Amino acid sequence: MSKFVIPEGRAFECIFPIKQPNSPTPMDLTGASGTFTMSTIGKGSCIVLDKIPMTVYDALNGKFKLSLTTEQTTGLVSSEAFEEDGYPLSATYKVLLEINQSEYGQIFANIPQVYIYDSGSTCPAT
Question: How confident is the model over 90-119, as pLDDT tens digits?
Fold first, then answer.
């Protein structure tokens, strides 16, 4: 499983494939909506990006697109050290995807570990 990495201080885009519950079949996202919420990990968890709208990228193949601006990623905190695999040593955020689709209703998906790297330096994993 790959790690979810966002560069600090740079525009970022990501495509999220959404599958039907308990199936490898893509969910039809025609008319669907979705949001992206990111919060810090830990006891004093706080939201840093709240309900950023995602756009339907490919409805019939179940794909949402998230676009974050430079302003939205500026100030995200990264780990100071890197692991041998080139990724930041520890995750600093978590994500909740909220999807509203006519057939299945409201669906939630979690990304429990989001890694940030300082875009002023080279991320060894890229």
Answer: 888 999 999 999 999 999 999 999 988 876
